[in-house]
């Protein structure tokens, strides 16, 4: 190309005659048709302009100067080959050449026709030598317009400045016209081919071309004038020319480094952003991913690499897992079909270095591989991480350089390959983490977050979606009896049965333990019930685990979105299915959710969330039930019992709200409240001279709190209550559920001097074995035996046995549930120590308890100057 200018390249990406070319142009038929019309217009305008300028500036040279034409052609050809390519934007390159120098000299030594012919011969010859044959007609038209425009402007300037007074002005103006014309034609070609290029970029490119053209023209003009007047000065002119060439090469390297850094940054950002987007969304069905990134995003990355290398084609072969086949992503020319089973030497390169292959220098195997790809040369680099092959990157046929890929291209592709390998490795790790985040490691099914993600779209799109909740009731039993490894085997087997029963397309998740959940889309309630019944039968069949056969039972609850007003969320459906499963404990093993079920759990939820506020508002109080000694009928103490009058639900029984509060982890708050109220009451009695103890119930969770004894000691010291006036009652099952944890707490409490009592004694199955080990002072006979003494000889025998056992161990025996005189008399005859029940008094609030004590007891002095209260008969 005869100047620092721009031309549109071939649609395949081959650059036109050396300037800022539009590479990587679209291959669509529409674009080709548009460009053919544009080529016809440019060529026609060039021919017409050449005839017009030739008529205006007729040839007046001498035949003796025949050698000027070949010399100019050679000069143009040499200047073209010394051109320096700089990629300035995606698919756009700018060639810094020295064609302005022979052009400006041509104004002085040759007529228009000779310069035009020399330029055409050099330019078209260069295109043919570079095998860029697809745009010869367009470039021929551009050559014509450049030279005709240059001579036309020079002629106009000559007439304007008065002939030959300043011929160098006309030559300089005409020389600058040539690159300006070629730049405008190239920008128009970019527009015709619908390639994006910002206006600011076009203006900067045009300004750079004019500046370089002016410098080149000035150097050529000055050199010609100096040599023409002083022939001995040609070494100086040559030195200036070489210095200018060195500056251009340095400038080219700086621009290329800048572009390479921009390209590396672009590729890294594209991969990072695509990875972040892939991580932010769960994988959808049918989504085409490689390394966790959409294939279309990899195609964009490949296109960016191709543009930066000015390659005809870039091929990325990517593999996420070692056993997976490679996915091929192509940017640029279509890749010919290659037998995947063929032995391809370009796909088994060792190391991670870039290899440069040329068809003229390659061995037969590599030459055949290049021919299979339809390429003359290729840069190939494996993408490796920790000696594992993640993929291969290939770049075929450098198009914007006559001499093909250079060392800068090799360095750039190597650096990009390193970035891509790191990105692929990170994407693989991200895909693994993403899979683990949404899948259960034991069964391989979805976990709760994975199920929530998968269920969102069906719940939004379908009117009839059913959530099945499946619970196996043997998990904890098998874990305790055989160990967790055996229980895990059962869970895996159950997961397989559910998958086989529901099919591979039904979303299935393991929630926790032996609980599963499945999503049925476009399913009615009736069909859901049938599916659940069939599934329950299959899950309830015995499980062969090694040489054992474990019996199991399944409970299934389901909730349907049909008939629901408004948008239904996943968590709400899961909660309803869970409520339905809990309802199966009433008898039926398959239950569908109905709104009335939700009211029960909503009530419990409100109780738990409102408990603390109720404590502060005074809705929770402590009632006291007196206990008397037998047979002297003295008031020995009271049992503190909590009561809650809810502003919405009314009076709540302890059996209703205590389990919910305990499950919510608030039992410590409740115990502290009752303990504080009881000690305050005992302190008040002590101030009145009454020595009455208070009994407070403990929970299993209290016995698991290592700091509990210290808290109790602080409360005793705070109110100044002797430890023996405080009794803690604990259930038999609570102690025996985890005796290793409960015993140290009980021993520490007992060492403080606090009385300990086993409540509901006789209902457990292991208490007799542990009773001697427990540091307890009292046993309380469960009221169910006391109530049945009058009609059931067995209950009577149990009560007698407990009394005898307690006394043999030196324990105080307390009977609760005493409601009749006969029962009191029987207990007194057996030697029972303390009685408690409705016969004596119901649980009373503090003010009514004071009235009861005053009305039903007589006061007498005790052994320690305290007043003793005796029940009046």
TrEMBL record:
| SUPFAM superfamilies in the record | EAL domain-like, GAF domain-like, Nucleotide cyclase
Q: Which GO terms describe its molecular function?
A: cyclic-guanylate-specific phosphodiesterase activity
Q: Where is the composition biased (Low complexity)?
A: 1-14
Keywords noted in UniProt: Membrane, Transmembrane, Transmembrane helix
Give the coiled coil ranges: none
Spans traversing the lipid bilayer:
37-58, 104-129, 136-162, 168-193, 205-227, 233-251
CDD domains per the UniProt record, alphabetical: EAL, GGDEF
Q: Which PROSITE patterns match?
A: EAL (PS50883), GGDEF (PS50887)
Q: Which residues form the EAL domain?
A: 604-857
UniProt-listed InterPro entries: Cyclic-di-GMP_PDE-like (IPR050706), EAL_dom (IPR001633), EAL_sf (IPR035919), GAF (IPR003018), GAF-like_dom_sf (IPR029016), GGDEF_dom (IPR000160), Nucleotide_cyclase (IPR029787), Rev_trsase/Diguanyl_cyclase (IPR043128)
Span list, region Disordered: 1-21
List, alphabetically, the NCBIfam families matched: GGDEF
Q: What is this protein called?
A: Diguanylate cyclase (GGDEF)-like protein
* Species assigned in the record: Amycolatopsis jiangsuensis
């Amino acid at each position: 190309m005869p100047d620092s200018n721009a031309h549109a390249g071939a649609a395949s990406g081959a650059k036109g005659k050396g300037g800022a070319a539009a590479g990587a142009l679209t291959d669509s038929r529409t674009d080709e048709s548009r460009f053919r019309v544009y080529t016809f217009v440019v060529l026609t305008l060039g021919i017409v302009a050449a005839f017009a300028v030739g008529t205006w500036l007729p040839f007046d040279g001498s035949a003796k100067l025949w050698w000027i034409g070949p010399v100019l052609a050679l000069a143009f050809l040499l200047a073209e080959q010394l051109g320096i390519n700089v990629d300035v934007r995606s698919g756009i390159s700018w060639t810094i050449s020295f064609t302005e120098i022979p052009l400006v000299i041509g104004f002085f030594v040759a007529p228009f026709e000779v310069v035009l012919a020399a330029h055409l011969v050099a330019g078209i010859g260069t295109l043919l030598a570079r095998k860029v044959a697809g745009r010869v007609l367009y470039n021929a038209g551009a050559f014509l317009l450049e030279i005709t425009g240059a001579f036309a402007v020079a002629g106009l300037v000559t007439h304007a400045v008065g002939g030959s007074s300043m011929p160098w002005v006309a030559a300089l103006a005409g020389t600058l016209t040539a690159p300006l014309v070629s730049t405008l034609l190239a920008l128009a070609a970019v527009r015709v081919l619908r390639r994006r290029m910002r206006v600011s970029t076009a203006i900067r490119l045009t300004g750079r071309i004019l500046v370089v053209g002016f410098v080149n023209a000035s150097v050529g003009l000055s050199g010609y004038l100096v040599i023409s007047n002083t022939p001995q000065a040609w070494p100086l002119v040559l030195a200036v020319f070489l210095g200018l060439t060195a500056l251009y090469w340095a400038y080219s390297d700086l621009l290329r480094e800048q572009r390479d850094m921009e390209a590396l940054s672009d590729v890294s950002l594209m991969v990072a952003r695509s990875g972040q987007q892939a991580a932010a969304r769960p994988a959808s069905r049918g989504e085409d991913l490689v390394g966790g990134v959409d294939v279309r995003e990899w195609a964009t990355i490949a296109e960016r690499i191709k543009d930066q290398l000015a390659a005809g084609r870039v091929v990325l072969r990517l593999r996420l897992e070692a056993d997976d086949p490679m996915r091929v992503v192509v940017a640029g020319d279509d890749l010919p079909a290659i037998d995947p089973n063929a032995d391809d030497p370009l796909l088994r390169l060792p190391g991670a270095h870039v290899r440069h292959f040329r068809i003229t220098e390659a061995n037969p195997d590599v030459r055949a591989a290049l021919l299979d790809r339809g390429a003359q040369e290729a840069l190939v680099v494996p993408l490796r991480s920790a000696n594992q092959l993640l993929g291969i990157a290939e770049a075929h046929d450098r198009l914007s350089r006559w001499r093909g890929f250079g060392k800068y291209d090799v360095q750039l592709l190597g650096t990009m390959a390193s970035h891509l390998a790191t990105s692929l490795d990170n994407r693989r790790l991200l895909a693994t983490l993403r899979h683990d985040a949404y899948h259960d490691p034991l069964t391989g099914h979805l976990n709760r977050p994975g199920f929530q993600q998968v269920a969102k779209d069906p719940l939004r799109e379908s009117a009839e979606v059913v959530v099945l909740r499946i619970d196996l009731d043997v998990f904890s039993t098998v874990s305790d009896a055989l160990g967790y490894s055996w229980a895990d085997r059962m869970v895996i087997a159950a997961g397989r049965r559910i998958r086989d029963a529901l099919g591979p397309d039904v979303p299935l998740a393991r929630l926790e333990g032996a609980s599963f959940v499945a999503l049925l889309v476009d399913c009615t309630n009736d069909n859901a019930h049938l599916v659940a019944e069939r599934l329950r039968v299959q899950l309830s069949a015995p499980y062969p685990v090694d040489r054992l056969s474990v019996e199991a039972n399944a409970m299934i609850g389901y909730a349907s979105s049909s008939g629901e007003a408004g948008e239904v969320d996943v968590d709400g459906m899961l909660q309803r299915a869970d409520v339905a499963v809990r309802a199966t404990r009433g008898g039926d093993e398959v239950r569908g959710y109905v709104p009335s079920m939700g009211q029960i759990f909503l009530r419990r939820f409100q109780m738990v969330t409102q408990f603390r506020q109720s404590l502060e508002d005074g809705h929770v109080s402590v009632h006291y039930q007196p206990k008397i000694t037998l047979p002297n009928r003295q008031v020995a103490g009271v049992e503190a019992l909590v009561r809650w009058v809810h502003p919405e639900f009314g009076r709540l029984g302890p059996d209703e709200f205590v389990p919910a509060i305990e499950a919510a982890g608030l039992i410590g708050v409740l115990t502290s409240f009752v303990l504080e109220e009881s000690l305050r009451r005992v302190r008040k009695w002590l101030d009145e001279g009454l020595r009455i103890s208070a009994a407070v119930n403990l929970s299993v969770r209290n016995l698991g709190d290592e700091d509990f004894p210290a808290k109790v000691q602080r409360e005793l010291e705070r109110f100044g209550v002797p430890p023996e006036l405080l009794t803690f009652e604990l259930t038999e099952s609570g102690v025996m559920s985890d005796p290793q944890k409960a015993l140290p707490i009980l021993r520490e409490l007992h060492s403080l001097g606090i009385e300990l009592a086993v409540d509901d004694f006789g209902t457990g199955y292991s208490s007799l074995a542990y009773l001697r080990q427990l540091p307890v002072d009292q046993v309380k006979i469960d009221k169910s035996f006391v109530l049945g003494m009058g009609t059931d000889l067995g209950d009577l025998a149990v009560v007698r046995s407990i009394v005898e056992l307690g006394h043999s161990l030196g324990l105080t025996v307390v009977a609760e549930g005493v409601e009749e005189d006969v029962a009191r008399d029987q207990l007194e005859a057996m030697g029972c120590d303390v009685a408690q029940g409705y016969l004596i008094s119901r649980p009373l609030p503090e003010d009514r308890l004071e009235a009861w004590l005053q009305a039903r007891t007589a006061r007498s002095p005790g052994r320690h100057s305290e007043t003793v209260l005796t029940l009046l008969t």
